[in-house]
Write a structure and sequence with these properties.
The protein has 22 helices and no strands. The protein is mainly alpha-helical. It is flat and about 75 Å long.
């Protein structure tokens, strides 16, 4: 096949995922051919792909017109609402209305401008600017406390659509010009952490979290009058209207919705070799999921300590976020391993971080099932989605014991704001978090943290006066068992290349 024929094939079949076809070519022996292509050949491929995705940039222009017309059509000064719980916000009502109107109009004008510029190929900065405009449109209703539900709905949905149209559907701007072809299986690994089954479960969890957070955010912003709680009565209302929540300059629940939006969209970004070709994206995705995930979980589990109440849907979002941490960490480690290996070969880390690097090996993932098989073989695809995360019985039992600790105060009729309840709620939640995170085989050593937590649970009940002696004994016994369960590593089912030596 000639280069011209290959270019035509690329342009016609790579409309939605231009680099995916390149990965397919590399696995069929075309890697060397592509890497030897000169700039003129890559430019030709870029122009052909741009021609096939031209509708994307026209859509950006139309969305720009839509954004200009939105405040004129829906009138953000009618059917206005105030944030829940008498919350003070940093803008007056008149300023909130004005800010949302001008934000949408200016964003629309800029979107038309950069969308028009993007009609010509090889203008990546215009595409990226349109993407950042989409991010701003998603954030503006949070920052300006959108006074009407339609303003919030319009901004969040159109913003997400713009992000998808700029960097998801056509692929990364100009990536064809510099992407290195090669295998998508990390050297020494037994599976590909960027495969679609591995990403499918992250996308699904992010979407579920987005739905729950969006409901809670709608209450805080004032679009609904009541936040339903199936277990804790008015606990959700108390948490969402608490001093801790009011200390944030924006709605913390709506901010969580924005984070879940980015996580959901970033799950789609890149081909199955993105751990190698897009280290910057894997890094930012990892930051959203891991450190920010820990912060989100900590804020939720601290509710009984700081507010004296539980929020059922807040707990649900924490439950959704928690498994995302061990499910995402393997892709981050594969990316880090690749950067270390490229550095040893003399490559610039800065260049590799932003543009990826050449493959160390040409091995491709032949183990992962196709995501299209999910309808016929859901269990097979699900098992592939959790490769790298296993649940040894000792970690599973630690998780159950941690949940038990959180329920002990209620079972013994202990006041939720008492020191003993605080110890059990916080200690139990930490045991659960550590045990679940340690289910990631690459983070199995994380389990040792439960030794310290278990020790605190063993000793601290006896430093608290005026408490139930039976509860103290049960808490201490649970802490001792958690300590004993934290020494054994459990079976490791997969291989992780350079990282294997750190799994102890």
């Amino acid at each position: 096949m000639t280069n011209d024929q290959e270019s035509g094939k690329m342009g016609k079949r790579g409309v939605s995922r231009p680099m995916a076809q390149m990965d397919m070519n590399s696995s069929n022996g075309h890697e060397n051919q592509h890497n030897k292509m000169d700039d003129s050949q890559r430019d030709k491929m870029l122009k052909m792909h741009h021609k096939q995705t031209l509708w994307v940039y026209w859509s950006l222009i139309l969305l720009g017109v839509w954004m200009i017309a939105s405040p004129l059509t829906f009138d953000y000064g009618k059917n206005i609402v105030e944030p829940s719980g008498g919350r003070d916000v940093w803008l007056s009502l008149a300023d909130r209305i004005t800010a949302m109107r001008w934000s949408d109009i200016i964003s629309g004008v800029l979107l038309i401008f950069f969308g028009w510029r993007a009609l010509r190929p090889n203008r990546p900065y215009s595409v990226w600017m349109a993407c950042f405009i989409g991010i701003w449109i998603s954030m503006a209703p949070l920052i300006f406390w959108a006074p009407t539900a339609v303003a919030y709905y319009n901004g969040t949905m159109v913003g997400a659509l713009i992000i998808a149209l700029t960097i998801l559907i056509p692929g990364m701007p100009n990536m064809i010009k510099y992407m290195h072809m090669g295998g998508d299986l990390p050297p020494g690994w037994s599976y590909n952490p960027s495969s679609w089954p591995q990403r499918w479960i992250m996308i699904a969890l992010a979407f579920v979290g987005w739905v729950a957070s969006r409901y809670l955010g709608a209450f805080q912003l004032g679009y609904v009058d009541y936040a339903w709680d199936p277990f804790f009565g008015d606990g959700t209302l108390e948490v969402l209207n608490s001093d801790m929540s009011h200390s944030w300059p924006v709605s913390d629940a709506a901010l969580g919705t924005f984070a879940y939006t980015l996580e959901f969209l970033m799950g789609f970004m890149g081909a199955t070799s993105r751990w190698r070709t897009m280290p910057w994206m894997v890094t930012f995705f990892g930051i959203l999921v891991i450190p920010l995930g820990f912060v989100s979980i900590f804020l939720v589990v601290s509710q009984p300590l700081t507010v004296g109440a539980w929020c059922a849907l807040c707990l649900f979002t924490a439950i959704v976020m928690l498994p995302m941490i061990p499910l995402q960490i393997d892709e981050v480690i594969a990316m880090g391993q690749h950067m270390v290996q490229r550095k040893k070969k003399g490559d610039s880390l800065w260049k590799v971080f932003w543009k990826g690097g050449e493959a160390i090996t040409q091995k491709s993932d032949e183990r992962s099932p196709e995501l299209a098989e999910f309808a016929e073989k859901p269990w097979k695809v699900f098992k592939a989605s959790i490769w790298g995360m296993s649940a040894p019985w000792k970690l599973t039992l630690s998780t159950i014991l941690g949940l038990g600790l959180m329920f002990y105060p209620t079972a013994f009729g202990v006041d939720i704001e008492s020191p003993m309840a605080d110890l059990n709620h916080l200690g139990g939640a930490l045991v659960v978090v550590v045990a679940v995170v340690a289910m990631a085989e690459v983070l199995r050593t994380f389990r040792y943290l439960n030794i310290g937590i278990g020790l605190a649970l063993l000793i601290m009940p006896w430093t608290i006066s005026d408490t139930n002696i039976t509860l103290s004994m049960l808490t201490s016994l649970t802490g001792f068992i958690v300590i004993m369960l934290s020494f054994h590593r459990g079976a490791i089912r997969e291989n992780y290349g350079l990282w294997d030596k750190y799994i102890k």
